[in-house]
Amino acid sequence: MSDWNQFKGDPHRSGVRRDAAGPDRVTKAWTADLAGPPESPVLDRDTVFVGTRRGDCYAFERETGRRRWTVETEGEVKTAPVVGRDGLYLAVGDGIVRALDPGTGEQRWETELAGALESPLALSDGLLYAGHAAGLSALEAETGTRVWTHETETAVAGAPAVDRAADRERREWGADPDETEIDLLSLDDAEMDEGVVDRDRVYVGTDAGTVIALEADTGEKLWNAPTSGAIVDGPTVADGRVYVADEDGTLVAFHADTGQSWFTYEIRDAFTSSPTVLPAADATFAGAADGYLHVTDTTFGRRKLRGWLFSKQGVALDGPVRSSPVVAGDVLCIGDATGSLYGVDVSGDAEDCDLDWFVDLERGVAGTPALAADALFVGTDDGRLHRLEWESDRSTP
């Protein structure tokens, strides 16, 4: 199994590989031409998979960039694929989920859903979660059989995030829960179920600006809570909280069990990425249309970076952010609309966030990078997939 097999690397959408040594110097290893602008790539063993808005799915050797196979679909592939033990899964814009053989691209099954698919799939414990125009559906990964569907008033926005009780016990993706006692902000419109602590959960955002928590195996609604606008890229689960950013410029952290708001942070422009959270550094990162990587703490949502006189909203980039942040070791990687890909130092408590390096990819970054232990894979608007690799003198945390 891969360690970056779906959007932002795992079902929590953490976007973090702390086992990788953060890159000091990045070089281009290879570039592959595609038939259209790519979406976010994913990795499995020695292969990188990527779909395009033209409707193609490609498999390339990770080390060399040699194309292994190409599959043409009848609709756009607007999201990252998912690869697991039982296949490679594609969400095609016309409402079809397809399972392919990862080695050959041969189709294994397909399932038609009630609405258009524009959200990345989630894979967890043998179930695929597909957000579509009519709601969220859970499918058996092995067969494509629909297990349940939860209907929503508006389309699902961004990738679902899955949080299972077994993962919380192992703490595979996060640190120990923060036991700091603070007053949770009141949300009069939130609807909650008190008995959710030990349940497996899937979280999903909508175009209407709602975050919904569902029981992962049945689709039963556990709670829902409002935000200000359409959710961008979907929720992120970290340290007992659910973080979302929306198109109205609001970043909210919800208590994962109850849906109560932990903090709210607002900007004057739209957020354009999902949050990425480093609990140990007390830092939350989210990109926006104002050309900033915004940085807050995880307790109160206050600006974390300090200037000479006032706190800074974040790290200034060359243009609007085009990808959700991902972290390799202690370096955060993020791309923008000008084609710049940046490495930001987030070591220690992430209080400085100095720019370590940037690579000019010449055309706008398309989708969120996929991280291997010593390389990242990222697409650009000119229909290319790039492998960037590094050697680092940094020690892993």
UniProtKB/TrEMBL annotation:
It comes from the Archaea. It holds the Pfam family PQQ_2. Residues 1-43 are annotated as: Disordered. InterPro entries: PQQ_b-propeller_rpt (IPR018391), PQQ_rpt_dom (IPR002372), Quinoprotein_ADH-like_sf (IPR011047), WD40/YVTN_repeat-like_dom_sf (IPR015943). Residues 9-27 have a biased composition (Basic and acidic residues). Residues 28-101, 192-392 form the Pyrrolo-quinoline quinone repeat domain. PANTHER family: CELL SURFACE PROTEIN, OUTER MEMBRANE PROTEIN ASSEMBLY FACTOR BAMB. This is PQQ-binding-like beta-propeller repeat protein. It comes from Haloterrigena gelatinilytica.
